[in-house]
Amino acid sequence: MKRFEMTKSYSMKKRLALSAIAFSSVGVLLAGCSGAGGGAQQADGPVTLTLATVNNPQMKDMEELKGAFEDAHPDITVNFVAMEENDLRDAVTKDVATQGGQYDIVTVGSYEVPIWGQNDWLVDLGPLAEADTAYNVDDLLPPVREALTVDDSLFAVPFYGESSFLMYNKDMFAAAGLEMPTNPTWDEVAGFARTLKTDDVAGICLRGKPGWGELFAPLTTVVQTFGGSWFDEDWNAEVNSPEFTEAVQFYTDLVKDAGEADPVSTGFTECLNLFSQGNAAMWYDATSAAGPIEADGSAVAGKIGYVHAPVKETEESGWLWAWNLAIPKTSTQQDAAWEFVSWATSTEYINLVGTTLGWERVPPGSRTSTYENADYLAAAEAFAPITKDIMLGVNPTQPGVNPQPWVGIQYVTVPEFQDLGNQVSQDIADVFAGRDTVENVLNKGQELAQQAGDAQK
Amino acid sequence: MTAPDLIVAEPAHDPAPAASRTLRRPPKPELSAGQKKALRLARTLVWPAIVVAILVTQIPFLVTIYYSFQNWNLMRPGSRGFAGFDNYVTVFTGGAFMQSLSATVVITGSSIVLSVLIGLGIALLLNRKFFGQGLARTLVITPFLMMPAAAALIFKWSMLDANVGMVNWGLSVLGVDPVQWNTDFPALTVIMVLTWQYTPFMMLILLAGLQSQSKETLEAASVDGAGPIRSFLHMTLPHLRQYIELAVLLGGIMLLQVFDPIAIMTRGTGGTKTLSYLLYERAFVGLEIGEAAAYGVITVLLTIVVASVALRLLFKIFSSEGAKS
Questions:
Q1: What is the pLDDT of residues A204-260, one digit of tens each?
Q2: I need a labelling partner for A319 at 20 to 30 A (CA). Which of A152, A389, B91, B95 fits?
Q3: Which sequence ranges are marked TM in the entry (chain B) (predicted)?
Q4: Distance from A261 to chain B by nearest Cα, in Å?
Q5: Which among B183, B272, B278, B281 is the top mutation candidate for probing chain A, defined by the most A β-carbons within 10 Å of its own β-carbon?
């Protein structure tokens, strides 16, 4: 009996010791997480840069052409780590937020640039760019540059940018005897869509797939031009305001009456499929869609007209997005990183793509000079001039009717927005299905938005 | 210090619990000092293995528990700190948790029931001797061998697409209007994909059960006048009981973690936001590491409760029915 007691207390002590070991290992693990934030020391001799990027065609072209940079800079090697958009966002956010220091150059969307800049995670590229006269920083498209600037610090430079416009099938419009104005209103577009809708052809394709970057990219621009906004100037939520409600009601009704089937499944890719197979009369989406639509293999190449984003209360309603290159503060090779970043976003690089890979593959929407280049204009005459007009016409500082406390059009540049936009868009899926009403959904959204707004006050 | 000293040095204890312990345990034989030394050495040698086992299996969970008490949003680096039970309060008052729990129960439960039933049917068919039996078995297993993400993509693009999907085409032949699967029936869509994918798994387990049933018993039953339905209900089904239990248990564990069809097809809309998808959203869309960790801890606790209580209860019902027949 006594022996039993002895072994019990003995094992208790051991167990305590064990849990102590376990907990101290947790400590070691955490210490490992928070460490490794180096300063900006410049290494001598050969340098290897790690670049995290999104795996879309323009970035693959960059990887293909990096040899030209490495030939001109024999000391620098650039390694590309390409990921799918969401993975890139996760991986880079984690690395930058935990001061991992894994990447010397990161590809960042225009939504994150101001947030990360304010968190002091990115190097201010403004002084570097201005010191480099050959870089010609004033050539960057002004609205894009504005969206990447916080308190006069330029935290990233654009690799390529896009806005949104309305694409329409000219054959279908001619057959129905309709004419598309250059600056259509949403009411006109809704009328066209309802006229052109048949059992086989959608009148218009509009994204309905939940996600702040899917549904709420086009929908927020509609809200803005209807006079609504996510927040007023003092970060009070306005999600259940009459304007916001009217816009969402308009959008969901239009999709239900004259839009694509199964909207919750439909995002950019699905609309691209539908429209390029000639199964939709109109499509309101990114200007970058014009590339694949005019490419070989598209059933509608050459038959598509491009006009400004439809409006209601505002003059212009296109969105603004750019994939940008930035240098995290944790990089130990910041000077070499700038060498590469300035090369990849230069006019010289754009000309290199044009002459070696073809002018239709030039990364658009980053520099004014791209739209003055005769070779590019000839290759992309269907959509390049209007893209330039829209990209110069949008105003990321005040895209809607009323002033807003952030810079950005189809998103709100606060960390809480992707969560907020995601949750509200999931509820809007219930509206598409008829399981819920717009008022209900937006009242719920109002509460979430107010929490996000309160965090900014 | 020798062992007898130790025994003497032990403080006196209340004899009652010790006495009750001896009732349950047979008295241990007295060990000599040498044996004890050998035993101590043996125990010491086991420690490294135990430490490694604990490090490998328990550290992630301990870290999760630690995170669940932190206020930590990745995008707000300055605000990290101890949060107390705030994250748990958010979990239980936010409303998302109960919805997600019921979505998990509905999706996991119906997928398991359907795939066990269909799997049982296919297993009964495949248990007969026929030409090309091996080939048929291999073909039937294929859905389970497919990667979940690939299966979800096939369903999304080839089967259920509103414009070019095969299912809607089949329905149109029958004169049914095209169905907007993800928009109108999100939960059913996910259950369909999961049932399609897990039926072969259930079928495999149940087929193994069927093949271990002795032919003589069935022959004896038919000699005694039992028809095929009676011998199935009273002989085969009780025999399959433990196989069904195993299939439900393994299927339940796997289906609780299901993520791909939801992320690819419905994006958590219309009652398809299961716990694993909710957790992903909190961590990677909301970037609320602390809150996501709290969801994780609660999910683990719930899984343990379900596994130990509900399943035992379920099996008790099964076994008492089995005993009756």
A1: 999 999 988 889 999 999 999 999 999 999 999 999 999 999 999 999 999 999 999
A2: A152
A3: 45-69, 101-126, 138-159, 187-210, 243-264, 292-315
A4: 6
A5: B183
CATH code for the part of the protein at B96-324: 1.10.3720.10
What is the homologous superfamily of the domain A164-319+414-454 according to CATH? Periplasmic binding protein-like II (3.40.190.10)
CA gap B161, B37 in Å, rounded: 71
Q: Could you tell me the residue ranges of all domains in chain B?
A: 96-324
Encoding tokens for residue A45? 């001799």
**Long-range contacts of range B117-120, CB-CB < 8 Å, 24 or more positions apart?**
B118/B195, B118/B199, B118/B202, B118/B203, B119/B198, B119/B199, B119/B200, B119/B201, B119/B202, B119/B203, B119/B205, B119/B206, B119/B247, B120/B202, B120/B203, B120/B206, B120/B240, B120/B244
| Residue B236, CA atoms < 13 Å, CB-side half-sphere | 23
CA distance A125 to chain B (A): 21
Does the domain spanning A47-162+321-379 belong to CATH 2.102.10.10? no
Q: At a CB cut-off of 8 Å and minimum separation 6, what does B212 contact? A: none
Q: Alpha-carbon distance B178 to B157, whole Å?
A: 15
Over range B117-137, report the average pLDDT.
88
Sequence length of chain B is 325
Radius of gyration of chain B (CA): 27
User: Range(s) for CATH 3.40.190.10 in chain A?
Assistant: 47-162+321-379, 164-319+414-454
What local confidence, expressed as pLDDT, does residue A23 receive? Answer: 40
CB-CB: which of A2, A18, A262 is closest to B10? A2
Residue A316 DSSP SS3 = coil
pTM for this model (two decimals): 0.79
The beta strand positions in chain B, using DSSP E, are 70-71, 81-82
Collapse the DSSP code of A286 into the 3-class scheme (helix H, G, I; strand E, B; otherwise coil) and give the result.
strand
- Quick check: B269 and A418 CB within 8 A? no
Question: Cα(A254)–Cα(A242) distance, rounded to whole angstroms?
Answer: 18
Task: Tell me which chain A residue has its CA closest to the CA of residue B60.
Answer: A26
Q: Does A83 touch chain B (CB under 8 A)?
A: no
Q: Which of B54, B182, B285 sits opposite A262 (nearest CB)?
A: B182
Is B306 part of the contact surface with chain A (CB cutoff 8 Å)? no
Q: Is pLDDT of B41 > 80?
A: yes
How far apart (Å, rounded) are the C-alpha atoms in residues A204 and A279?
Answer: 9
**Nearest to B202, CA basis, from B246, B241, B162:** B246
Nearest to A210 among B6, B160, B267 (CB): B267
CA distance B91 to chain A (A): 15
Question: How far does B94 lie from chain A, in Å, by closest CA?
Answer: 11
Phi, psi of B29 (to 5 degrees): -70, 145
Whether the CB of B128 is below 8 Å from some CB of chain A: the reply is: no
User: How far off is chain B from A415, nearest CA to CA, in Å?
Assistant: 6
Q: In b/e form, how buried is each residue of A10-45, taking b as 16+ CB within 10 angstroms? A: eeeeeeeebeeeeeebbeeeeeeeeeeeeeeeeeee
* Residues in chain A within 8 Å Cβ distance of B160: 265
Which residues 43-62 of B have a C-beta within 8 angstroms of A? 50-51, 54-55, 58-59, 62
Q: How confident is the model at residue A32 (pLDDT cuts 50, 70, 90)?
A: very low
Half-sphere exposure of A344 (CA within 13 A, CB side): 32
At B41, list the tokens.
């050495």
Place of tokens 């990364």: A363
